[in-house]
Amino acid sequence: MTSAFAPALEHAAAPGTARAVALFCHGGTVESVQPPRERALSLLRMRAIEEFVRRSVGPRGLDTYLLRYRVAGWNGVAADPYADVRWALERIRAEHGDDLPVVLVGHSMGGRAVLRAGGEPGVAAVCALAPWTPPGEPVGHLRGRTVVLLHGRGDRWVPTRLSADYAVRAQRAGARIARFTVAGGHSMVRRSGLWHALVRDVVLAGAGFAPERDDVRAALDAPPPDGLAVPLDPPRRRR
To answer: Which burial class, exposed, middle or buried, applies to 67 when counting CB atoms under 10 A from its CB (0-12, 13-18, 19+)?
Structure first.
């Protein structure tokens, strides 16, 4: 780790015995060695998603963790958020052992970080929202892993073609991957209920609490490339 700052985990324990864990990772920026701002929109948005999932799934035995990075930037080869995700997974394994499934959820830069960490021990599924996946981002470690992507078709910050290209490469590398699209942009505010519900359902299935949702299972099992550009929202009716 390259910063004098320390990462932190915000932990919400399940009401009873923990049976699974979800780790939530917010977005950031390309270059910065300053810690994330407390009121950063990316952090507030991920807190809202974590809260929704915790309220929905927590009573079944889900522990949730929200990762606060050391610094707000990816910072080139340092890949600081990825290092922090690995740090968080080590802490989670130290707390819960190696037997509980872990579902990773990340947005934007956090999506890149959780995808990088998708091959770590204990990771049962990865849900990446509007992920920042530049050309050449590694995919081989995701072989045999379950990965679900969701990207807004109007995203002006992270072009949808990046996640589209990434999904194709990951599938060729052996990942069990689905990619959905939805109206709206990078903030995940438009049609927010669809974003929240998909994360909840990926966590439910990854944790082993419920079967995969029908549309998610169909996309994951579809022959290439049919499951890599599935509209999550119904098309508008013409008037």
So the answer is: buried
